[in-house]
Amino acid sequence: MLLVIDIGNTNIAVGVYRGRELVDDWRIATETRRMPDEYAMLLRDLLAHRGLALTSVRAVILSSVVPTLVTTFKELSERYFRVDPLVVGPGIKTGVRILYENPKEVGADRIVNALAAYRLYGGPNIVVDFGTATTFDAVSAEGDYLGGAIAPGIGISSEALFKFAAKLPHVELLKPKHAIGKNTIASMQAGILFGYVGLVEGLITRFFQEMGKARVIATGGLAEIIARETRIIEVVDQRLTLEGLRLIYELNRGAEGVGE
User: Fold this and answer.
1) Could you report the per-residue pLDDT of 3-48, keeping only the tens digit for each?
2) How many Å apart are CA 52 and CA 46, to the nearest integer?
3) Tally of domains within the chain
4) Is 109 in the active site?
5) Are 235 and 255 in contact (CB under 8 A)?
6) What is the domain range of residue 231?
7) Residue 65, Cβ neighbours under 10 Å: how many?
8) How far apart are CA 74 and CA 149, in angstroms?
9) Which one, 48, 131, 152, 222, has the greatest CB density within 10 A?
10) 39 in a domain, yes or no?
């Protein structure tokens, strides 16, 4: 079986594949101080919940925007799975031509998403990933990565509002009844949620002006909340990055080790 791991700043997405079938997937908190053995025990328990053992994993691929955790998960893979993990980065085949001034600057997760979006939904497309940062990535009709935009994530934005405005409280990200709030909490919810929808629609509209009409695909923790408030997002796919990692594994090492 193939274990795919996407390490983000806030969460780590984990999935296990049997061939091309996603058996199960999970999200765990990113913790840079956690040791390889600790992560291994977490993975052991998650796999066991699905009736799987650590020994059932025959191959590992990972992408990461947290450099220190690459070493952690490489050590984990070598010690517990007895495999050298494939790490998405320079020199790895992705099937995506990167039309960026410096291709090495593009986060691995963004290229993984671009590949998956193109293979699953065709092109041109725009991938919006709602993570710690919200990334917007443009993919051409030929599957080339054209570039994109990076904005502060919703969590960062709302946390900054609480941190730097002394009288404003923490609020739950819920849809208020009206854009014109009648109390502080409703006003903050309107500003955060509807304001962020405006940011998403505004950036995507500008992308359309530069690349033409494209299908918009959203992924990440808050994708569904934002997608419910705008028609500009056509598809929500929470497993997009996991599928992209599987595809990159097959491009680089074939399907061996992905079966039983």
Assistant:
1) 999 999 999 999 999 999 999 999 999 999 999 999 999 999 999 9
2) 9
3) 2
4) yes
5) no
6) 103-239
7) 18
8) 30
9) 131
10) yes
State the residue for tokens 């497993």: 239
Q: Is the pLDDT of residue 178 over 60?
A: yes
Residues 151 and 182 in one domain: yes
Q: Are 59 and 257 in contact (CB under 8 A)?
A: yes
What interhelical angle do 36-49 and 67-76 show, nearest 10? 60
Which H or E element spans position 154? helix 154-164
What pLDDT, in 10s, does the model give residues 108-128? 899 999 999 999 999 999 999
- Could you give the residue ranges of the DSSP H alpha helices within 165-212? 184-189, 195-211
Classify residue 248 as left (phi > 0), alpha (psi -120 to 50) or beta.
alpha
Locate 14 and state its tokens.
């984990």
SS3 per-residue string spanning 15-47: EEEECCEEEEEEEEECCCCCCHHHHHHHHHHHH
pTM assigned to the model? 0.90
Contact predicate 242/4, CB 8 Å:
yes
How do 2-7 and 59-64 pair as beta strands?
Answer: parallel
Question: What is the rounded distance in angstroms from the CA atom of residue 252 to the CA atom of residue 260?
Answer: 19
Residues 6, 109, 129, 237: which is the catalytic one?
109
Asked if residue 7 is part of any domain, the answer here is yes
